[in-house]
Automatic annotation (TrEMBL):
Family per similarity comment: Belongs to the globin family.
A GO MF label: metal ion binding
Species of provenance: Polypedilum vanderplanki (Sleeping chironomid midge)
PANTHER family per record: GLOBIN-LIKE PROTEIN (PTHR47217:SF1)
UniProt protein name: Globin domain-containing protein
Residue intervals of the Globin domain: 17-160
GO CC terms, sorted: extracellular region; hemoglobin complex
InterPro entries linked to this entry: Erythrocruorin, Globin, Globin-like_sf, Globin/Proto, Mb-like_M
């Protein structure tokens, strides 16, 4: 019985909308890195070359040779802008459906490209590592950040 209660608590904890305070903590960390678009994408590709290999424009190329290109900057900006857009809507129950719509669209686009759950998890690991190393980071920020990813990934993984 106790075990079932613990399981129920874990399930409940895995998809709880962010409070306004949590959203503020995540935005605070994100604001410190969001102008480093190119460095963020380079960190993801460097940690996980299988992600780079999914991009028709970047597959099979040396990271150092593509990192300075306009295509690289454009894609890095697309990813970072998407995250900024979602975070701007976080922490407010009135805008939760808008987040769901954006994230569902992202999941469907990426499913069509053959991106896997493991690769989304790799992306999360690399991004979290980058942000935690470049923004003031404490247990409260980490917990809010993880809650944000748990929520978004619950939607994405249900579609993949
Ligand atoms: C939360 C994680 C991710 C975010 C926020 C994100 C964001 C985006 C955005 C905004 C675009 C451009 C719009 C679109 O075409 O949908 C895009 C395109 C793309 N993404 Fe992602 N992505 C994520 C994870 C991944 C992962 C894990 C992979 C590969 C393993 C991947 C591969 C691609 C590819 C191949 C494109 C198309 C690039 C092109 O136009 O040539 N993405 N992504």
């Amino acid at each position: 019985m106790k075990f079932l209660i613990v399981l129920a608590c874990i399930a409940a904890a895995s998809a709880a909308p962010l409070s306004a305070d949590q959203a503020g903590l995540v935005r605070g960390a994100w604001d410190k890195v969001k102008h480093s678009e190119v460095e963020i994408l380079a960190a993801v590709f460097s940690a996980y070359p299988d992600i780079q290999a999914r991009f028709p424009k970047f597959a099979g190329k040396e990271l150092s040779s593509i990192k300075g290109s306009a295509d690289f900057a454009l894609h890095a900006t697309r990813i970072v802008s998407f995250i900024s857009e979602v975070l701007a809507l976080a922490g407010n129950s009135a805008t939760a459906p808008a987040i769901e719509t954006l994230v569902t669209e992202l999941a469907n686009n990426h499913k069509n490209r053959g991106v896997t759950k493991d690769q989304f998890t790799e992306f999360r690991t690399a991004l979290t590592s980058y942000v935690s190393g470049h923004a003031p980071w404490g247990d409260n920020v980490a917990a809010a950040w993880n809650q944000a990813f748990d929520n978004v990934y619950a939607t994405i993984f249900a579609k993949l």
